[in-house]
Amino acid sequence: MEQTYTIGSELGIHVRPAKLIVEAVKKYAGTEVFLEKDGKRVAAKSLVNVLTLGAKHGDSVTVITEGDQAEAAQQEIGTILAEHAK
Q1: What are the residue boundaries of the HPr domain, all occurrences included (predicted)?
Q2: Which end of the chain is more exposed for a tag (fewer CB within 10 A), N or C?
Q3: What positions carry a catalytic annotation?
Q4: What is the pLDDT along the chain (86 residues), one digit of tens a residue?
Q5: CATH number where 51 lies
């Protein structure tokens, strides 16, 4: 599954939302979650990985989920990003 979000928060994806994303990913064993921005794809299971995307206000970030619980993971991470996205 893939879904793209435009980051609306003036702060972009900083430590707090990145931590929430990583914590959410850990709930879904057997599901891989990736974030992609400007052709750079990272595994969302590491805080450092999420932060290295450098997602700022107005950037588009795609959430890619694969595996048994892909839909549930996509929904939860999408909800987290929606708090910081338009």
Answers
A1: 1-86
A2: C
A3: 14
A4: 999 988 878 899 999 999 999 999 999 999 999 999 999 999 999 999 999 999 998 899 999 999 999 999 999 998 888 776 54
A5: 3.30.1340.10
